[in-house]
Amino acid sequence: MTDLDLERLGDVWRRQPDPKELEELRLAAETVRARARRAQVADVTAAIVVAGVMGVMIFYNPQIDTFVLGGAAILILIFSQLRQRKIRQLEMQSLAGNAEEMLEQSIARVQGTLKRARYGLIALWPAMILGVGVAYVADRSGALVEWVAQSRWLGPTFNILAGGAVAATALHLYRSLRSSRAQLRRLIALHDAFKQERESSLSDD
Amino acid sequence: MDEEDGQTGASATLNGETPPFERIVGEYGPLISRIAMSYEADPALREDLVQQIFLAVWQALPTFRADASLKTFIARIAQNRAISFVAKQVRQPPTAEMPELVESDQPTPEQSAIEANERTVLLEATRRLPLPQREVIVLVLEGFDYAEIGEMLNIAPNALALRLSRAKATLKKMLERPA
Description:
The complex is a heterodimer. By secondary structure, chain A is an all-alpha fold.
């Protein structure tokens, strides 16, 4: 043991911040809470809107393909909401545990992100075809396509926007892949440091 | 302000219920701020970290069991979020685990102005500790007893004593040779 007076250092450490700092903390916390609440409301609203649109589509166009596609969209929505909730719960559990376990879960999560980014790059093309399928079902009469074709600039604009969206998605997935790989390396290094510390404590014990 | 008295969840809760978020911010905000400071020197990033910790606490509050210590619960979340934050920083190389390889943070004008402050020196020394040691020292400085720390970190008392001994030795070196 060393002669470091941790009790005195603890008093120095816990010295009260000034009222301005406390007010800044309070404001930061309030901002975070307001943002989180807005995100919750946006999530629920988006889910209701998508489910409503699909419901209306099925109601006004009660064909089997509309039903299948609309039903699939609603199922995907429910599945993604449940999954998000589960991920948040797991994250909260890991944050309340010890650092090594938390890092293990972070590693598993980043590995999952990596897998999803890889899968996303592959699944981008079938998803586009599915999107075209949904558009075809929604515009069975062809009125929308005809309306677009009548305009000189609407078609090219739509093509540029759609092409841009696909390129941006692919770029985002690629960047996510790269940053996830770098993050995984850092997490593993950090996890190893904690593991080493624990193992050396046990061996010296 | 009564967060420094180390009260446990039983007394820190209102009739066995989780206190409102505003009260948590008032009582444990400084603890969260200090933990964030011990992991992040850059003021902008630190603000981001503090916000992330508040968000995590807000999200985790429904899972808090009122029979446990709220202070321990919040400190654990803050520490883990901070470690996870550090792990995400691109500029933080894995070699930062070795204290002798760590370079000091570039002092900001604000930091320079209060350089003589004992608290700043302690904070800077703590920031240069390897993460596993920093985790223990921060909890000791926050006033948690060894049993609480052992429980939080899920390590046996002997292993904790050993890690703390190493952390104290490293911290002493850091304080004797400020960056």
